[in-house]
Amino acid sequence: MFRRVLLATAVGLMAMSARATDRRTAEDLSADQLVFNTDKGPIATSALPSLSDMLTVQRSASFFYDYLREGSVAERLAAPVLKTTLFVPTNTIISQLARKPHEGAPGEEKIYSTEKDEEKARAEYLQDWVKTHAVAESLELKLDDLSERDSLLKDHPITFTRAEAATAVDAWASILVGPRQARVIDAVECSNGWIYMLDGVLGL
After folding, report:
1. How many CB atoms lie within 10 A of CB 153?
2. Could you tell me the pTM of the whole model?
3. β-pair type (193-198, 84-89)
4. Torsion sign, CA atoms 127, 7, 172, 140
5. In terms of residue numbers, what domain contains 132?
């Protein structure tokens, strides 16, 4: 449902943008492309939404997106040629954490000399937390390839295991992610990667 509704929304927005130009044609193009006329001629582009566009319209990912926008991962998403896969805990999951990622490392009671130092430490922890939920490739989860992937945070790989009752039509629904075995509850392919919605966190 998430995939169908949001893809339709994103494609609709792109179509509106195209109509604002002189005209739009789709002759001799594959079904997954749109063409936009510019002063330099027609330019074909993927009809898939970008990761940033999809995160913008997915309400259940808004907490994660707010965290992501504060650091280097956002810069990565802004570069279309860089492929990224995001494992996104839902808002409900994040809100249930005893200590939220923006509050600093769990169990940390360190006393900082200044408020600025404390804010800096929390910001660094938050960005490390986000990086543990991302890999630098467009990764389509498959049951015949459960090899671990390096996350964007060094020495924090993301592992995958097959669920005991792996009977779902979509492979991603039968794969558990990370040491806490978070379940993938939805997935969507984007122009520069994938988003997998999780019912848990990967964490540090």
Report:
1. 18
2. 0.76
3. parallel
4. negative
5. 51-199
Query: What does the pLDDT profile of the chain (204 residues) look like in tens digits?
Result: 555 444 444 445 444 444 433 333 333 333 344 433 444 454 445 589 999 999 999 999 999 999 999 889 999 998 889 999 999 999 999 999 999 999 888 766 677 778 888 788 889 999 999 999 999 999 999 999 999 999 999 999 999 999 987 666 889 999 999 999 999 999 999 999 999 999 999 977
CA distance 64 to 73: 12
**Number of compact structural domains in the chain:** 1
Residue 115 belongs to some domain of the structure? yes
Distance CA 56, CA 124 (A): 23
Quickly tell me which residue has 């965290």 as its tokens. 67
SS3 139: coil
